[in-house]
Specification:
single chain, alpha+beta, Ribosomal Protein L9, domain 1, 3 helices
């Protein structure tokens, strides 16, 4: 039985691949789970159109991410934190705080896209990496100063 995968299936294939499977497995597992559709000419054309639309959308998102990355390269943000004796911070600077600081500057960045290798627990200057898409990254300068 020939089927077109509508989602990736481990040990079988990825989205859009035409696979040849046993009839029972195809009907009972893949088609009932909506992981595949029959490989007819109409379904093939529909899938090609979906893939083209997805490609156009991905290219638009990548262009937007590149634009945002260029504008973020020049951004420098400052986090004012409370410190105790010997300039030791209470807590750390979090991804949410960095996201909020960027929002104040006019950049909407989801906190999950901010990549911190380790928690920021000391005063100083840091370079924060932001993953805007799977292939586009930007860096922002963060200054951590005491209040």
């Amino acid at each position: 039985m020939k089927l077109i995968l509508t989602e990736s299936v481990e040990n079988l294939g990825t989205i859009g691949e035409v696979v040849d499977v046993a009839a029972g497995y195809g009907r009972n597992c893949l088609m009932l789970g909506q992981k595949a559709i029959p490989a007819t000419s109409g379904n093939m054309k529909m899938l090609e159109n979906k893939m083209k639309n997805r490609l156009v959308l991905e290219n638009k998102m990548k262009e937007d991410a590149l634009e945002l990355a260029k504008s973020l390269e020049d951004v420098s943000i400052t986090a004012s934190v409370q410190v105790g004796e010997e300039d030791r911070m209470f807590g750390s600077v979090t991804q949410q705080q960095i996201s909020d600081l960027l929002k104040e500057k006019g950049y909407e960045v989801d906190r999950r896209k901010i990549d911190l290798d380790e928690p920021i627990k000391a005063l100083g200057r840091y370079t924060i990496r932001i993953k805007l898409s799977s292939k586009v990254e930007a860096e922002v300068k963060l200054w951590v100063v005491k209040e």
